[in-house]
Amino acid sequence: MSGINDLPGFYPTIKDGGLGALPSLNVSVFGVYGVSEKGVKTPKMVSDINTIQEEYGMGTLTEQLIDAFVCGARQVVALRADASTVHVVGTPVLTGTGTATAEAVLQTGVLAVKADRTHLFKITVGGTAATAKYQYSKNGGITYGEEQSFGASPAEITLEDGTKITFTDAEVEPEGSFVLGDIWTLENTEAKMDTTDRAAALDTICAYKDANGIGLPLVYDTSEGDEVIWAVLGSKADEVWTNEQRPIWFLINATKPDYADIDAWLTALIVSSTAYRHERVGVNAFYGRLVDTRGNILIQAGGGSVAGFIAKGKLHWSIAWVREFVFPNCIGIEPYNSDIDKMDLGRIAQLNDAKFISARQWAGYGNAPVDDWLMAPATSDFSSIRNRRIMDAAIVGVQMANTPFTNSPGVAKEDMIAYKKALESPLDSLITEGAIMSFTLTLTPDDNIWTNGIVYATIEIIPTATKKKLSATFQLKSGTAASA
Fold first, then answer.
1. Given this model, what pLDDT does residue 406 score?
2. Per the count of CB atoms within 10 A, which of 53, 125, 361, 461 is most buried?
3. Residue where one domain finishes, among candidates 369, 385, 417
4. 3 state DSSP class of 155
5. What is the value of pTM for the model shown?
6. What are phi and psi of 201, to 5 degrees?
7. What residues form DSSP beta bridges with 184?
């Protein structure tokens, strides 16, 4: 292999656009994609929580974006994804002895269910529709509103998710249509991404670059999935690294809890975590009772909240630092069936041991993450989000520092010290910021350096928090000599 002294001469030419002054690395920005009622289907920077509802309407994307901003996000690149899996307007189900009938359909002019909702109608006064009364819950029975009257039969009630439910008295003995204590349940589901939709969304969000040509360090998939979908995300991370030498990692939610059998749900998650591991995929298994900006309480995946914490924290901070990261909008950990059948510390420990991001209640503080895991193999040095973020920031920082050299004729022996010093500048900044304790940067020219200008960079760093040496090797490209 050619020695470092064989590198071609370096005579930098600063192009229009200010390549002489490097842009700052904004590690707090991340990408998110998911399904919403409306909005453009191209990546868009969101920086104001008050515009999210107006921009995207209802839907999972909206809810997760709001959670992220509540928990500390300030700039998020959002993408409304296609949703080819058809929405479902549920069939009303009665738990009780009343003889009324009920039917649910979309409201006139509405094309699809706007958001996942579980509607409950609890009968508080029996009789016909004209005399009966009920309390309504739009969050599966966590909270109920004030007592209301149905009105004359058939009684039509419009719901915020774009559907309506109509109750009709029984033709025979209508006075028995509604019975005290009866509960009607209607579960509606928004449209979901299928495999093709997710692939398209991934391609689009991963191709996003800011004005300085910098891609997103983290992308959050707002849906839920098992190891099959985790593998799709892991493959995408590998693809981006192979094709662009650009680090990226993904966050996604685990499958929703099974309230009928919490332990079966836990077992299934643990099996999934054994089946697939990747050091660039984080899986959130925290589901909670989250309060939105309008005061509504909904059972939601906590991935948006976790992403907000990650954006809020410094590189070397753990989202498990309780003094810094307590979910401000969480009033309970799910699943929760009763005081006995709930996410106790033993069950939370199972999730934590399987490297899921989970949450618990900390006495005196509130609800907060347990640890900052990635779904990494046991032998990986990148099992924590902190280590992943620090190393990725180091790589991108060096790549950014190399930008002015890409259009130069090359780097000569006498320029080598200055070249390396320029590349070390962002690593010095990481020490100043407290992210790392020390670093070593080694540059090795490619065998064909004279014609391709390729240099391999190896970074070794000691993170402040974990104090474990991490290393990464990646490719840089400088200019080539005018002649060999």
1. 75
2. 461
3. 369
4. strand
5. 0.90
6. -65, -40
7. 94, 121
